[in-house]
Each structure stands twice: as C-alpha cells, then as structure tokens.
Amino acid sequence: MREALESGMDLAAGLHNKLADVQELRELAAKLGRSLFDVRHPTETYPVANGRKRSGKRLLPVGTDCSCGKMYTALAIEKEILASGGKATFRATGQTGILISGAGVSIDAVVSDFIAGAVEVLAPTNDTDHWDVIEGQGSLFHPSFAGVTTGIIHGAQPDALVLCHEPTRKTMSGVDYPIPYLAACMALNLSMARLTNPNARFVGISVNTSVLDEDAALSLLATIEAEFNLPAVDPVRHGVGRIVEALASL
C-alpha cells in the first residue's frame, strides 16, 4: 500500500479496519497529496426510519443465504431495465457494490437503529416510473446477519422482491444452519416487507447454477418455476429479461 501511494495511486478499502487509522499510511497520503477511501464507513448521519410511503418503485433481491447472487442480480436487473428504455438506479448497500457503482452506504457499518433510515435516504422519493434496485444483504434465516437484512427490507419498502438461491449448499455460509426451503424463505420475507409496503410481492427467482451443467440447471429452473409460478432464471447463464418483464404489471 505504501508503494501504491508512492506510485501516484489513491487507496480504497472495504474492510472494517480503516486505512485512515494506519498512521504510516495516513501521514504518507497527506504528504503526497493522495486520498484514502474507507468505503465501508458512512460519511453522513442517517435518520431513524419513518416508514412513510414515498413515490417511485423499488426492487430488492433477498436470499436463502449470504453470497448467493443478490448483488449480481441487482446489477443485472438495473442494466436490463436501462437497456429496455426504463429508468433504474442500482443502490449499493455493501462495500463491493459501492466500489462498482461509486455511491451507496455499507449498511453493516451503520448503527442498528438507523439501518432502515439509511435505506430510506439511499432510495428516496423518485419518479413514479423509476426503479431503485437496492442491493440485498444477508438472509432472514442467517443467525449472524438477519438483523441487517430486516432493516434493509423495512427501509426499502420494496414493491418487488426477487429470491436469490444457490441450490447445492446444505448449510448457510459460516454457520451450521440448514438452507431454508424456498417457500418458507419467501413467506418470511413477504411478511417482513409488508410491514412497510402491504403490496410487496415476489416477481422472480434468481438461481446461481454455476456448479451445475446446462441440462441440470435448466431442469432445476423448470421445477422451481412450475412450483412457484414465477420466472426462475440464472442471471449469468440466461439473463434477467423475464424478471424485468414481470415488473410491467407493478
């Protein structure tokens, strides 16, 4: 990192540990006129959520686990909406999403009382035909991160939910808890979402089939689609066009 600063680069990091807290880096950056970006740490003060309905439309990917495709799904949906001539903005809630999009708030670094309020600020009042595509985090079934997920759902007031799932996992990331059944996961997420948006509903299921061959992936997606009567896609293999088409009814 010192060599990077000396070579003319700024530094950006998404860790809980701050670059600016490392005295050697802080002093060298100041001497050389370089910038240190600790993107995981909010730079503004957020309000307590008020739960009031705001104009515009919002989509939130939720998951059966952590790291199962929520960010990629959100980015792909934003891109597809824009390509089809619609209005959309990806709203990052994690450090990687912030580094990709250049804006957002790393929601797991916000004091818990203000998580929902931070999301209200992140996805504010907008045009009635504009979609804020909010990056989801964690899972309501994950014992480590369910609290963060809950705050995002309430602040997002999602009109549309997309369930994200990795079908070969037996337990959730980092813990010995089983992956929830899709129907149970959808029911709990809907229950949470309808606190702040009674009309919230699922519009699709995004499945990470990267470890399956094409035939197995297509068979699994067909089975899921038949069970839930929703478009089921792998956003990498097949795109998210069918999910975006479902937004037209909202």
Structural description of this entry:
By secondary structure, this protein is of the alpha/beta class. The protein has 2 domains: 2-38, no CATH class; 57-249, Rossmann fold, CATH 3.40.50. The chain contains 9 helices and 8 strands. It has a 6-stranded parallel β-sheet, with helices on both faces. A two-stranded parallel sheet has the order 1-2. Helix 5 (115-122) packs across helix 6 (146-156). The mean pLDDT is 96.
Helix/strand-derived class? alpha/beta
CATH homology superfamily of the largest domain: P-loop containing nucleotide triphosphate hydrolases
**Rounded Rg:** 19 Å
DSSP strand tally: 8
Overall shape? globular
Query: What is the residue-mean pLDDT, rounded to a whole number?
Result: 96
Strand content: 15-25%
Q: Biggest sheet: strands side by side, in what order?
A: 4-5-3-6-7-8
Helix content: 25-40%
Write down the domain tally.
2
**Main beta sheet strand tally, sense and closure:** 6 strands, parallel
Number of helices: 9
> What is the succession of H and E elements?
HEHEEHEHHEHEHEHEH
> Low-confidence segments, ≥5 residues, pLDDT <50?
none
Task: Please name the defining characteristics of this protein.
250 residues; alpha/beta; Rossmann fold; 2 domains; 6-stranded parallel sheet; two-stranded parallel sheet; 9 helices; 15% strand; globular
